[in-house]
């Protein structure tokens, strides 16, 4: 197929920082995909006047990284420039004005509504901008990207979502708000697609594109008689404004490589438990990505964890419990290595550890949440070991046969749970169904295929 690597590419990009009462950690990893098409943007303090405001965004590109990269570099500035001129008209200088005055102005529902409109305009404008670039006018841009973005004012979280990446706000250990994915089979999306002369087949726009809103994807935005927001694929984001409260704990923005294998509820349990044992947010996000990889995610993965002052704090008891668990895992691995020596395989170790039903494994992470530790321990004990990689139809040395079987069952269960909850996701068609149905298309490596409609 050429769609997947023989083993996942696990080199990671990290970023972390703090400001405006927030801390953030970011991690991105290519994983099984042949290309890395995700991008991201973090900005703490947006202008002199918007110093108390921050922006975070994740972009999940498909059919190339042009649109995701371009959007990560320009979307925020396009929105801000629109807002600067608008706010000037409103008598609130968001570029150079007084910080506290601007903060207060952004509490005014009417002004906030105007800001919301500029966010929407910004998403639509970046599409128009890209279409006038030489790279488009000369060669055409076939790639597209989802975008999930959050603006944090001192009092609000403004979510802007376009596509099926997702942002989630956790407060009091529960989900306070999560964005909804734009899937072609959602009622509103289907209506727009059909009105634009398209159809939804195998849960995709015209049977090919698995997401119904995106930046780029110009092959799906060609009807000259229709406005941008009525095309087969729309760049219009859904914008939600949520009041911040003292109870807010954290925000997570991530692409579908994460959400494919963990539900919103699982993520909240998992992240909440990890905040008790790690103070370094980068480490938490790295472990999240590795856990998702071990749970069977085959996609690029990017996530940003942003904590508020009231996020769960390091807990001595939890740290000690975790240390006991880690020591036990290392001890068991040593025993296995004593017996099998150089022939010890990651595979064998994981299957054995799984049988122990170790207590206190990370919530919703299972033994997969310890894959990084297991592998690092093995790297020290058996540095020369040879892990087999496989062709891309099976799982390779890292995603282990025993574990994979169990994972398939677990994913099936979680799929059924989600389906029962009303949200039917097409996580299983991503590779298999499409390859079956489009078996002759070997130029493409993405579940968000862009064959012209
Ligand atoms: Mn993806």
| Integer-rounded radius of gyration | 23 Å
Question: Which outline best applies?
Answer: globular
Low-pLDDT segments: 390-405, 414-446
Question: Helical percent range?
Answer: 25-40%
Number of strands: 14
Name the structural class.
alpha+beta
**Content of β-strand:** 15-25%
User: CATH superfamily of the largest domain, called what?
Assistant: PPM-type phosphatase domain
Ligands, deduplicated = manganese (II) ion
Can you describe this structure?
By secondary structure, the protein is of the alpha+beta class. The chain folds into 2 domains: 4-307, PPM-type phosphatase domain (Phosphatase 2c, domain 1); 316-416, Orthogonal Bundle (Arc Repressor Mutant, subunit A). It is 38% helix and 21% strand. The chain contains 13 helices and 14 strands. The protein has helices spanning 66-89, 99-105, 109-131, 134-139, 187-195, 256-259, 264-275, 281-294, 316-340, 346-355, 371-381, 401-420, 429-437, and strands at 4-19, 22-33, 38-44, 54-62, 144-152, 156-162, 166-171, 174-178, 200-201, 204-205, 215-216, 238-243, 248-254, 301-307. The strands form 3 sheets. The chain has a 6-stranded antiparallel beta sheet. A hairpin with a 3-residue loop joins strand 5 (144-152) and strand 6 (156-162). The chain binds manganese (II) ion. Manganese (II) ion is lined by residues 60, 255-257, 299-300.
